[in-house]
């Protein structure tokens, strides 16, 4: 199976990995800015999001990302990952550290990190709504939790659209025998310069993860955005564009 993707611009490659609340459309504000700064920008839809369906059988998403990059002739690249996309970026960087020149993680998740009571309560509420068939309610729950106070109505509607599509794709594939291959990243293998961005209005889990990563990754820097929720690249796009341009330069 091929991950749905697009490519914009020329120059050093940057791969954008979206949050699992969204799909690759969440990077619309960043693509033009990074391409104008001289980058070849690749973005893709993760499994069950956007244009990428849920596969059948065992499926290794990190290995499939590597195959996609091979097909594009990209040997080295910077990775930008948001939330669940950051978790995949860490797995990829740990498996292929020589390939990753830089790592920018926005409110990243981390496999194995125990969830806070707030996150566990959210998961339980979302599951209850979906089991009751209230997909619209589950979508609203996500929009309300993951966007900070800077998000305007258009941003909230975009996230609502992306999350609803993801639920529709994933619920339609409930009977598909999908077995994801996941590995805990060996963080000691990651040597690339790393930017860790968190939002003051986000759940505490993601700041805890960033502080943990800042303590174990040798070239990591943590930036907390006092105005941000969980999706700062959508909430204040130009502020995040400036952060990414400066870091990638």
Automatic annotation (TrEMBL):
Highest taxon listed in the record's lineage: Bacteria
Molecular function terms from GO: hydrolase activity
InterPro entries assigned: AB_hydrolase_1, AB_hydrolase_fold, AB_hydrolase_sf, Epox_hydrolase-like
Every AB hydrolase-1 domain range: 14-242
Signal peptide: none
Pfam families assigned to the protein according to its UniProt record, in alphabetical order: Abhydrolase_6 (PF12697)
PANTHER family: MONOACYLGLYCEROL LIPASE (PTHR43798)
The name this protein goes by in its record: Alpha/beta fold hydrolase
Organism: Actinoplanes sichuanensis
Species lineage: Bacteria, Bacillati, Actinomycetota, Actinomycetes, Micromonosporales
